[in-house]
């Protein structure tokens, strides 16, 4: 054998050995479910815009690719369940993010718990009980009691004594109502109605007539998006002159478009991103919120005008922060990485997002406090900071 050929064989062997011992480049897989169709699309479409903005803002983790797989659940919890199983069992995703309703998000959380893959919920939920002390689900939103508390504190400050309530006949409606009842227990405020309607309803006349009969000083809305405007349209038709309050769920362009003059003046709690340009420069959310707005415009061709897209954006930031740390313990695509990612998610600390300063612990699936919410009022079709 010639010396040249021997050296070539040795070099090739060395290269093969090096390839065998060098770790493969990581590929992170994110499974994203939202409602691009059905009654929850008014929320689900903005979530899709938020994920697109996030990928535009941060498309890799330390130079390693992030693959995004997006599915439409059609606003159907059964479809959300099927989609979740597909993403985990067939697409082998490392993490799940979704979806547009609390009911469908709970369905996703149940499967995530069963198959042991981390899940970041975009809707307020009560995560399933942890197995052996292991939590697999966290929520990027402000917890519903906090969303409502910020509003009810203002309602009390405004001197309202008799408050009527109308909201969805599902989990979100329950969350808001229970938050209002908690304020009632503190004294000084009486919840005098508990009217409900479905997302698919086209009229709430019967419910509003009942509310008007109780002569409330103000009304709290437990709806969201387009359908959140329905009670206000009917209240306006009936000549209601009292104050109206809402939660972040109604901070949406479709709510303003559909509601028109009927929704003018509503006071709501919401994440600081909505009024980012009105915040002081020292506010933790200002810089990242303005970066989000820029990425949203670049990715979607339209400006961000709602409170939903930022939640999806923040979920991506939380995942990226945790994944960078989990990579030191295991390779993406493995059960070991899923467990390492779970632990890293529940140790996120002081991460500035558009909707909160995130701090997660193994004991809590929610990671924000009152700093995550501000009060804002709709004036001439735009949200104004209302400290």
In short:
With 387 residues, the chain is α/β, with parallel strands linked by helices. 42% of the residues lie in helices and 18% in strands. The protein folds into two domains: 27-142 and 289-372, Response regulator (Rossmann fold, 3-Layer(aba) Sandwich); 144-270, Rossmann fold (3-Layer(aba) Sandwich).
CATH second-level architecture of the largest domain? 3-Layer(aba) Sandwich
Number of helices: 13
Structural class from helices and strands? alpha/beta
**How confident is the prediction overall: mean pLDDT?**
91
**What is the CATH topology of the largest domain?**
Rossmann fold
For the sheet with most strands, the description reads: 8 strands, mixed
What is the total number of structural domains?
A: 2
């Amino acid at each position: 054998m010639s010396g040249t050929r021997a050296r070539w064989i040795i070099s090739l062997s060395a290269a093969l050995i090096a390839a065998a011992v060098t770790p493969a480049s990581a590929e992170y897989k994110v499974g994203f479910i939202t409602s691009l169709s059905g009654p929850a699309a008014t929320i689900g479409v903005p979530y899709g815009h938020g994920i697109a903005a996030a990928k535009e803002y941060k498309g890799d983790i330390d130079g390693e690719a992030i693959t995004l797989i997006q599915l439409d659940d059609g606003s159907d919890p059964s479809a959300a369940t099927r989609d979740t199983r597909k993403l985990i069992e067939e697409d082998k995703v490392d993490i799940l993010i979704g979806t547009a309703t609390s009911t469908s998000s709970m369905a996703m959380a149940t499967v995530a718990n069963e198959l042991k893959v981390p899940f970041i919920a975009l809707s307020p939920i009560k995560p399933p009980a942890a197995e052996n002390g292991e939590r697999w689900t966290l929520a990027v939103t402000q917890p519903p009691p906090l969303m409502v508390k910020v509003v009810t504190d203002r309602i009390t400050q405004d001197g309202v004594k008799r408050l009527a309530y109308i909201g969805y006949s599902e989990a979100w409606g329950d969350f808001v109502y229970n938050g209002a009842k908690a304020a009632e227990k503190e004294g000084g405020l009486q919840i005098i109605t508990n009217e409900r309607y479905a997302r698919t309803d086209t009229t709430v006349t019967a419910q509003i007539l009942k509310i008007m009969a109780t002569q409330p000083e103000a009304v709290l809305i437990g709806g969201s998006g387009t359908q959140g405007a329905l009670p206000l349209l009917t209240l306006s038709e009936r000549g209601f002159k009292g104050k109206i309050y809402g939660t972040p769920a109604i901070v949406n362009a479709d709510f303003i478009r559909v509601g028109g003059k009927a929704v003018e003046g509503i006071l709501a709690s919401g994440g600081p991103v909505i009024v980012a340009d009105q915040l002081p420069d020292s506010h933790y959310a200002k810089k990242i919120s303005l970066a989000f707005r820029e990425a949203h415009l670049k990715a979607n061709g339209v400006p961000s005008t709602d409170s939903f897209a930022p939640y999806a954006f923040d979920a991506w930031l939380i995942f990226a922060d945790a994944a960078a740390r989990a990579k030191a313990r295991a390779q993406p695509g493995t059960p070991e990485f899923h467990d390492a990612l779970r632990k890293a998610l529940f140790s996120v600390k002081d991460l500035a997002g558009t909707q909160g300063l995130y701090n997660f612990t193994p004991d809590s699936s929610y990671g924000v406090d009152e700093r995550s919410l501000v009060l804002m009022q709709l004036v001439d079709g735009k949200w104004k900071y209302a400290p």
